[in-house]
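Is this the right way to post structure tokens for a design question? Let me know if I should format differently. Anyway, here goes:
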């Protein structure tokens, strides 16, 4: 990854933060995008710098085209280009359809689906100029079988799969690959919070682990490593694919 530039959206915590660290360790210059949590983003940046890496912090709402255009411009100006885009930024909430208002539906769709579209739209011209690029979008394992109170999130993340495949066909001739990663139950702050918010935490934990053939929760770094692989030359002949990192949860 040396001499390559990667932009990771939603890079201040969880999978995004681990992905930023993985790319930095591999030698890439990292553009860490965050929406609001400047303190968390700064902590990740400090870790990268302590390890001798290059990092640029950019605060931007990925659902705003003006903000995305500015972010891509800052990236190109600071590091001289953009080779890899990781569309990781996402939001979620718990609402059954009949209880969800239109504003909440639109908020989740804007960040989770419109955001990757805008970031790709404005990154593509830079990648096309040099005939090379990697775009990796984050989907989710759960959207394939559905879950209660997450219809907006599932709609967006399934949309990401269709978007990934269409974009892969559009950009193949330009030397740009486009793939998606679908994490399973990964032990992030969000998953830990979901477990704590249930009345039967131990029962839910046992149920989830029983459903997973590997019998454990995944680690954020395991997802980051899959993203790193798709961004590497070793994955040069892989495009339009959805790579599950779910411990066999949805094997077929």
């Amino acid at each position: 990854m040396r001499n390559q530039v990667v932009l990771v959206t939603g890079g201040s915590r969880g999978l995004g933060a681990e992905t930023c660290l993985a790319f930095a360790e591999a030698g890439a210059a990292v553009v860490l995008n965050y929406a609001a949590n400047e303190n968390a983003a700064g902590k990740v940046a400090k870790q990268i710098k302590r390890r001798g890496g290059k990092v640029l912090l950019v605060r931007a709402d990925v659902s705003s085209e003006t903000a995305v255009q500015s972010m891509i411009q800052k990236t190109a100006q600071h590091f001289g280009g953009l080779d890899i885009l990781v569309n990781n930024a996402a939001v979620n909430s718990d609402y059954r359809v009949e209880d969800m208002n239109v504003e909440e539906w639109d908020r989740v769709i804007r960040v989770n689906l419109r955001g990757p579209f805008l970031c790709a739209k404005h990154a593509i011209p830079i990648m096309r100029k040099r005939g090379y690029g990697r775009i990796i979008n984050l989907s989710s394992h759960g959207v394939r079988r559905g879950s209660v109170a997450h219809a907006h999130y599932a709609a967006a993340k399934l949309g990401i799969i269709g978007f990934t495949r269409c974009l892969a066909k559009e950009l193949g001739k330009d030397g740009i690959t486009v793939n998606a990663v679908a994490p399973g139950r990964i032990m992030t702050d969000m998953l830990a919070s979901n477990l704590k918010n249930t009345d039967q935490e131990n029962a839910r934990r046992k149920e989830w682990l029983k459903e997973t053939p590997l019998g454990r929760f995944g680690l954020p770094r395991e997802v980051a490593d899959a993203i790193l692989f798709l961004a590497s030359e070793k994955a040069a002949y892989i495009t339009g694919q959805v790579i599950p990192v779910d411990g066999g949860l949805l094997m077929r």
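Format looks fine. Someone answered above. Worth noting: The two ends are 32 Å apart (CA to CA). The domain at 5-186+220-245 is CATH 3.40.50.720 (Rossmann fold).
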